[in-house]
Specification:
By secondary structure, this protein is mainly β. The protein has two helices and 28 strands.
């Protein structure tokens, strides 16, 4: 199945390119969270100078109520950690680690990040719990371990850009379930980022509309996206997706690297999808008026899908005579040299 039209509304909706950033603001000490003042960061999105409750605070723990701010905790310089924190109320990002200019290293661990988006949630393409980006001369790196992410508008975790390195493990990422107002994505690795995605539980990213689909774990990149969103749009290569539990997402694991013509690249992307448990209990998506759901969908070159367990009526072709339901969608007409071995499928 040709997914080109699907990609523009789904995976690419979380591209989130922005302007360069201003020099760092003064830091706050650990626990100095109130009263909250929404301070400008110099990072622009949607023409807005994004404000944050905390800017380069170093190491933090505890509660951050970011109501009224665009960002809960913002880093663009140095290092820090977010550990055992409760962050909520921002409408664009819970934690944003911006490595466009400087080298920034931040670990986000054992935290609850929730209610990130508009109130009530709507179809605007923002509201991400944790976002790492590295699109310029700097870098963004860190561990994203053991967090619980709920009630986000667009996405749970996004790691974008060639300067981004993320180790994403043992997080619980829970979407809104079957909704008709936005195509949510659980975890996205995009536009050249380097990442391992291991041991996460990603559920409930499901779009009931007819224009696109949602994804549980997404790997996205390539020149086609520059056509729609502007550069940079590097291929995302070498991502490891291992040992995750992925339930009730339209596409469980979605690999989509596309050249300027919307075809898979001829250079190797080498994404590895191994030992994951992927399931969907029914048909909920209505893409094209019929519906499209897949346990794994692949557009790349030399990607490997091995030892995955895929189950449920939502990925079983016999469930519907009209919808396109499939356990692994890796047809040679739109992906190159896929390696598919030892998977359990319906």
């Amino acid at each position: 199945m040709n997914l080109k039209k699907l990609l523009i509304g789904g995976a690419a909706g979380a591209l989130m390119l922005g302007a360069m950033i201003a020099p760092a603001f003064a830091t706050k000490t650990q626990g100095d969270f109130g009263p909250i003042t929404c301070s400008p960061t110099g990072f622009y999105r949607d023409g807005i100078n994004m404000t944050a409750a905390l800017i380069n605070p170093g190491d933090i723990t505890g509660t951050v109520n970011a109501a009224g701010c665009n960002i809960g905790v913002y880093y663009d310089n140095g290092s820090g950690s977010v550990n055992k924190a409760d962050i909520y109320g921002a409408n664009y990002f819970g934690v944003l680690v911006n490595g466009d200019v400087n080298n920034v290293s931040v670990d986000v661990q054992n935290s609850s990040i929730h209610d990130i988006g508009e109130s009530p949630l709507n179809g605007d393409q923002h509201g991400v719990a944790i976002y790492y980006r590295g699109f310029g001369t700097g870098s963004a790196s860190g561990k994203i371990w053991g967090n619980t992410l709920t009630n986000y508008q667009k996405g749970g975790i996004v790691a974008n850009g060639l300067g981004t390195t993320a180790d994403i493990r043992n997080n619980v990422v829970t979407g809104q379930g079957h909704v008709n107002y936005i195509a949510q994505n659980g975890i996205q690795i995009g536009y050249g980022a380097s990442a391992q995605v291991r041991g996460n539980t990603v559920t409930g990213n499901s779009y009931t509309g007819s224009s696109t689909v949602s994804g549980g774990i997404i790997v996205v990149g390539g020149p086609l996206y520059c056509t729609y969103f502007g550069p940079p749009c590097d291929y995302t290569t070498g991502t490891i997706i291992d040992g995750n539990t992925v339930r009730n997402n339209d596409i469980g694991i979605w690999l989509t690297n596309l050249d300027e013509n919307g075809n898979s690249p001829t250079s190797q992307t080498n994404v590895k999808v191994v030992n994951n448990t992927i399931s969907n209990d029914g048909l909920y998506n209505n893409y094209g008026g019929f519906g499209y759901q897949a346990g794994i969908a692949d557009q790349g070159d030399n990607d490997k899908m091995i030892h995955n367990n895929i189950s449920g009526a939502g990925y079983t072709p016999a469930t519907s005579a009209t919808a396109y339901l499939v356990a692994i969608d890796a047809d040679a007409s739109f992906t190159n040299n896929a390696k598919i071995h030892a998977n359990v499928t319906p």
